[in-house]
Amino acid sequence: MTITTKDLQQLFAGIAEDIAAERDHLCELDGAIGDGDHGLAMDGGCQAAAKAVGALDVETAPTLLFNVAAKAFLNAVGASSGPLYATAFMRAAAAAKDRQTLTDDDFVRVFAAMATGIQERGKAEAGEKTMVDAWKPAADAALDAWGTGKPLPECLDMAVHAARVGCDATKDMTAAKGRASRLGDRAIGHIDPGAASAVIIIATMAKFARR
Ligand code: ADP
Ligand code: MG
Ligand code: MG
Q1: 166, CA 20 to 30 Å: which among 12, 115, 141, 201?
Q2: Where is the DhaL domain (predicted)?
Q3: Domain 5-209 is classified in which CATH homologous superfamily?
Q4: 5 CB under 6 A from ligand 1?
């Protein structure tokens, strides 16, 4: 299926809507092991990105659209999630370079590039109780499924499943990165808020792929 700039504008609007619906829950999760602002940060960043992207002409190249999203997200967010998602969107821009529309193959590469960007920006590995625990297995699952010839919607459904499993697993972890790393064993028993918001975004991307 061909993915146009208009489709990507709708994707960003969908992400903003789904994150907004979970804003308070994400703040509660962050309240338990962080500073309680994760819902506000993600909501502010996603609204700003959706607005900036939505204002672009439909002829805008996808690479520019992702760079606009990155800048808007970074400017709107004063928390750790700001530079992490800004990097994700910049890597998406690089993966979409020289395209006027995206193929399913491009979209899988965009998705995987976002995960790699977050991982490299935060220098976190899976198992350190961060959003990487959702993004990394999700990207691996999507790439694996795509490599075995599964259609895009199925690849992203498998990514959502892997993200959920990864997010749930953060509950039993101590944190090695971010604010929660100061808590030691007291972080155990709580889901990582960044992993929870990652599941929401990945699920919106999967919904988009099934459209
Ligand atoms: P802050 O902690 O600055 O208030 P947020 O509340 O927006 O930032 O985001 C917290 C989330 O950011 C954590 O739950 C975790 O998932 C993620 N995070 C923090 N540090 C890192 C890192 N180095 N790499 C990846 N993710 C990180
Ligand atoms: Mg926070
Ligand atoms: Mg904060």
Answers
A1: 12
A2: 6-207
A3: DhaL domain (1.25.40.340)
A4: no
